[in-house]
Amino acid sequence: MSSTIRNAPSCADDRESGVLNVDEARQQILRSITPLSGPERLPIRSALDRILAEDVISPIDVPGHTNSAMDGFAVRHADLDPEGRVTLRCIGTLMAGQSFAAEIGTGECVRIMTGAPLPVGVDTVVMREHVEENGEHITFGGGERLGQNIRQAGEDLAKGSPALAAGKRLTSADLGLLASLGQAEVSVVRRPRVAFFSTGDELRSLGEPLGEGEVYDSNRYTLFGMLTRAGAELRDLGVIRDDPDALRDAFADAAAHADLVITSGGVSVGDADYTKQVLGELGEVDFWKIAMKPGRPLTFGRLGDAWFFGLPGNPVAVMVTFYQFVLPALHRLAGETDWQPLRMRARLREPLRKRPGRSEFVRGILEQSGDNTQPWVTTTGAQGSGILRSMSTGNCFILLDEEQGSLEAGEEVTVQPFAGFV
Length: 422
Ligand code: AMP
Ligand code: MG
Fold this sequence. Notes:
Strand content: 25-35%
Strand order of the largest sheet: 7-4-6-5-9-8
CATH topology of the largest domain: Molybdenum Cofactor Biosythetic Enzyme, Chain A
Shape: elongated
Low-confidence stretches: none
Number of strands: 26
Number of domains: 4
Structural class: alpha/beta
Distance between the termini: 46 Å
CATH class of the largest domain: Alpha Beta
Radius of gyration: 31 Å
Largest sheet: 6 strands, mixed
CATH architecture of the largest domain: 3-Layer(aba) Sandwich
Number of helices: 7
Bound molecules: adenosine monophosphate, magnesium ion
Mean pLDDT: 92
Helix content: 10-25%
């Protein structure tokens, strides 16, 4: 008979019933979250990185007129000789922004600059470097293609066609695109309001002296950084003692003023009892055990009108669960339709020990090989869930799925670059 006493799940368990895997938990979260309502209209510069709340339909053709893509000469292609030389008479010059009223006749050509509207009668632009100029006599060689070096009206965007779809995160290119449509303002989803606090009697805030057994609250700072990068509006409620009344007040305050409430600490076995009690009074939450390392305990649900994540207390577990669960939830809240975390394959520089049973998120350093053919990844060393330095020196997670066992050096693994969120 085993002498081990086990009456509750712990971080050391590998396989066990009633445990969710990472994908199941993420899907449950995404299924229950609905996008924020109440878009706001902003000048396009302020809308960078925000999510479009409605489709943008092009009110004009872009470009508005068929124009030259080169500095050169606009000709009738039929006037040229595919095999030999032909000299045409240049009857004028067209700069960008100018137009030419007269039709260009047979035997004539016009000097044209990039962006200038193509005059009536011509159908082809020959680049300057391909002609010989002799006053108004311009000599062309063979081999010029009909219709070359011309940008068609509406070829970037036709009037009435969808330019940008609702749910898109606006990039620099999108700001330029909106400007090219003459659109000065755009409707975007409002920023998610996120309230967060840390729980634990052992935690001290910056500026306070550290007593025996106490640690500085670092989670609120990593959360501040990650939430800021994710575009949230923040409400930092500080450190809350492990005390039912203090917790109840903090949860109630957070839920009243936020779309999303995030706490760290207090959801593992030792603390769960009164966290459970308080959360049970204020809302509807599930306490999950997730088959992952780090980050096994996770609480998710509703607190009043807000969604709630109770993240584990360990500093690395906070970041891993944030990336795997909170970040997708924030993208969903913002109505972003096609967000996908970046993943790629890389070769291990060293062997990796792993037991099947849980997904592991090993912190790694991804590097391009010298010959640029294949990325390589090394671990950051010790992988304890309290070793925040592993997130600081690392630039990716090495994703090891549940069934995965130990790996040899040189084997391929999937990695998820931090890609700006850390
Ligand atoms: P808990 O989940 O509350 O049992 O905490 C697990 C571990 O994470 C403990 O060692 C805590 O001291 C540590 N921890 C919890 N919250 C924080 C925090 N905000 N900053 C730094 N460490 C923390
Ligand atoms: Mg605690």
